[in-house]
């Protein structure tokens, strides 16, 4: 693709990011003046921003099912950074992200203004995050997390970790499983995955050169969170998503076995 054509496709993305920056500045100003977190405003503006950004990126959304009414903790498999844009376009939501994102130039500031909660290591920090999750759910704000803790190419499903499900259990918040898959010309689009040594700039360029991709979001029946251990709930969500995608989930035992074999080969 010529540099001119690539530049023309990049312009809407830059315009969308500028709009996001204006939204973030507005939220920061409203928060300062009202001395309140303004979480509802953050979620609504973030949804509008994601819709504009999805169009700019030529990220076509194919939604199957409808979000259930009320507050839910959304759990989805993780393939790409595009997952966040796609899910965030559906309804007002907040996300959990790894702590490193908070320090990224511009993107970190945008995610903080959007009301993102960051996962940090350490028992005390983990307890603080749990308290923050419980507070958000109690206030009626739905949240999204990716319980695999990493991305895959979409052909497999790694173990769903249940350590962040305790707030949903404590508040009686139902779980909303979401199965994500990328498609192009009727076939799975593995190039949409953001894995390995991929960097954001290269991935974005590849996406624009290929004319975007289609993200299929399948909203599965919600699962009640009460009366079950958190790892059992995580396993139920994993099984539901795996069945929807037609793939075999990787169990903890299989993951440990694969890791042991890799170490022995090294």
Which properties best describe this structure?
47% helix; single chain; disordered C terminus; alpha/beta; globular; 8-stranded mixed β-sheet; 15% strand; 266 residues
Descriptive notes:
- The protein has helices at residues 3-34, 39-56, 82-88, 107-113, 123-138, 166-171, 200-209, 230-245, 252-265; strands spanning 59-64, 73-76, 94-98, 117-119, 143-145, 175-184, 187-188, 213-219.
- The protein starts with a helix and ends with a helix.
- It has one domain.
- Strands 1, 2, 3, 4, 5, 6, 7 and 8 form an 8-stranded mixed sheet that branches.
- The protein has 9 helices and 8 strands.
- It is an alpha/beta fold and 266 residues long.
Number of helices: 9
- How confident overall, as mean pLDDT? 89
H/E topology pattern? HHEEHEHEHEHEEHEHH
Q: What is the oligomer described by this structure?
A: single chain
How helical, in percent, are the residues? Answer: 40-55%
β-sheet strand percentage = 15-25%
Q: Low-confidence parts lasting 5 or more residues at pLDDT below 50?
A: 255-266
Count of DSSP E strands?
Answer: 8
Main beta sheet, described? 8 strands, mixed
How large, in whole angstroms, is the Cα Rg? 19 Å
Structural class: alpha/beta
- Euclidean distance between termini CA atoms: 40 Å
Coarse shape: globular
Q: Kindly give the count of domains.
A: 1
């Amino acid at each position: 693709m010529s540099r001119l054509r690539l530049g023309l496709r990049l312009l809407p993305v830059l315009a969308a990011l500028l709009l996001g920056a204006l939204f973030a500045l507005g939220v920061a100003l409203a928060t300062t003046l009202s001395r309140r977190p303004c979480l509802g405003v953050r979620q609504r503006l973030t949804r509008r921003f994601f819709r504009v950004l999805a169009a700019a990126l030529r990220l076509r959304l194919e939604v199957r099912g409808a979000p259930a009414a009320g507050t839910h903790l959304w759990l989805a498999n993780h393939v790409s950074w595009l997952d966040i844009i796609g899910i965030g376009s559906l309804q007002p939501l907040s996300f959990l992200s790894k702590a490193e994102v908070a320090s990224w130039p511009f993107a970190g500031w945008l995610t903080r203004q959007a009301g993102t909660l960051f996962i940090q290591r350490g028992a005390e920090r983990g307890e603080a995050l749990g308290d923050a999750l419980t507070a958000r759910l109690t206030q009626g704000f739905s949240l999204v997390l990716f319980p695999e803790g990493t991305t895959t190419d979409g052909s497999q499903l790694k173990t769903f970790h249940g350590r962040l499900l305790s707030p949903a259990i404590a508040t009686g918040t139902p779980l909303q499983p979401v199965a994500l898959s990328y498609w192009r010309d009727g076939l799975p689009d593995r190039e949409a995955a953001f894995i390995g040594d991929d960097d954001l700039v290269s991935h974005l360029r590849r996406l624009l050169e290929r004319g975007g991709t289609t993200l299929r979001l399948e909203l599965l029946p919600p699962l009640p969170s009460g009366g079950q251990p958190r790892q059992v709930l995580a396993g139920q969500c994993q099984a539901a998503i795996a069945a929807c995608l037609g793939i075999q989930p990787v169990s903890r035992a299989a993951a440990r076995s694969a890791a042991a074999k890799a170490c022995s080969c090294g």
